[in-house]
Write a structure and sequence with these properties.
about 130 residues, alpha+beta, 4 helices, about 20% strand
Length: about 130
């Protein structure tokens, strides 16, 4: 995809940068966070990539890295386990992934698994009996 010939004013506004056009055909950009200014001149009729980046890196932050979902703790007291489990809770008890629990439920291989609307649930007592039966 080719870079635009002129500045993308909407993108500049979203990054907190204001634009002023100079008589020489170049642009002066101002950072809305730190007040820094920098000049950008089109090369070959096009603006350079990343022309909106503040020299102080105010507007160049990378998106936050996706954090993995924390694993549910395996309960040590089975009396504290709810009577009806979510697939994630059942997976923690079985020490398998949530997708594995859902696959077993769909295949009919997980005792006590049933659908409540569109979501899977598992009966605690049937699951514990299945675990004990080994």
């Amino acid at each position: 995809m080719a870079r635009p010939k002129g500045p993308d004013r909407a993108a500049l506004s979203a990054r907190g940068v204001t634009l002023a056009e100079n008589e020489a055909g170049s642009y002066t950009l101002t950072c809305g966070q730190c007040g820094a200014t920098w000049d950008v001149a089109p090369a070959g009729g096009r603006l350079p990539a990343g022309y909106w980046h503040c020299p102080n890196a105010c507007n160049t932050a990378q998106p936050a890295a996706r954090q993995p979902r924390a694993a549910l703790a395996v309960p040590t007291d089975l009396a504290s386990v709810p009577a009806i489990l979510t697939p994630a809770e059942a997976a923690a008890l079985l020490r398998v992934s949530e997708n594995t629990v859902k696959d077993w439920a769909r295949a009919g291989d997980l005792p006590g698994a049933f659908k409540l609307g569109k979501v899977w649930r598992v009966e605690r007592d049937a699951l514990l009996a299945h675990i004990r039966a080994g």
